[in-house]
Specification:
This protein is mostly helical. About 65% of the residues lie in helices and about 0% in strands. The protein is elongated.
């Protein structure tokens, strides 16, 4: 199944990137990715259907139905909508910094699942999870009901997968929420393995702009990575100063 049910591999956007720019970038990238995956999957489905029509041995195999079926251009639109909504909601919710990682994933996946259901219904496809005997939703009420059902199912599946993943990785989401920007910085610099050093030294997000060489030495980060981190932090300070200057100019009469 090509749909992403986990947000573990998504990299956070830099803290200095504005919400509108981050959303635009997320929507564009995820829409393109979903469109390509949808077109490829639709092409595979089409080839399998053509083979089944000419091969008696494949005639009794059940065909795909619902949101994961249809010609390549329809499936491309469906998955483009799904990935764009999921990526956009994830970016927006993370910028709010009010929800845990699992809650963020579940909220984003609810919206993405609902959007996928609406997109497939408008293209004349059967209910996403109704099987071969499912009817095509008709009218706003049925489309809305199917959207809610799909959103809830995607959300619950995503939450379950993320919870299982955390149990195997030993991550504590209650503490990780305080290190989201720090983890994003380390990921951007290719220094993910020093995440545990930050947590050991309680270097939470609100400590980033206060970081200096002594603090990084205290948590046993080598000289090379320290220089990269301090250079990144210096860039954050400059960006914050520029933002403050722009805001002060904007409020002047």
């Amino acid at each position: 199944m090509l749909i992403r049910l986990s947000l573990e591999n998504q990299q956070p956007f830099p803290r200095s990137l504005s919400l509108s720019n981050a959303l635009s970038l997320s929507l564009f990238c995820d829409e393109q990715t979903g469109g390509v995956l949808g077109f490829v999957l639709g092409t595979v489905n089409k080839n399998l259907a053509e083979q089944a029509a000419t091969n008696p041995a494949m005639a009794n195999q059940p065909a795909m139905s619902g949101a994961m079926s249809g010609p390549p251009h329809v499936l491309a639109v469906n998955l483009a909508v799904f990935t764009a909504v999921q990526g956009g909601l994830t970016c927006w919710i993370k910028k709010m910094n009010k929800f845990s990682e699992i809650e963020t994933g579940m909220l984003a996946m609810f919206g993405a699942g609902a959007a996928l259901s609406v997109s497939s219904s408008l293209s004349g496809q059967k209910a996403a999870f109704g099987g071969q005997d499912a009817a095509i939703p008709e009218g706003p009420m049925q489309i809305a009901q199917e959207a809610v059902k799909s959103g809830v199912l995607f959300s619950l599946l995503n939450g379950a997968f993320m919870k299982i993943g955390q149990s195997f990785s030993g991550k504590n989401e209650k503490t990780d929420v305080f290190y989201s920007h720090a983890v994003g910085m380390l990921t951007a610099l290719g220094l993910e393995k020093y995440e545990k050093n930050f947590k050991r030294g309680l270097l939470t997000d609100d400590c980033l702009l206060l970081l200096n060489d002594n603090a990084l030495q205290e948590v046993r980060i080598p000289p090379g990575p320290r220089l990269k981190i301090l250079n990144y932090v210096a860039g954050m300070r400059v960006a914050q100063q520029q933002q403050q200057q722009a805001m002060s100019l904007a409020v002047k009469p």
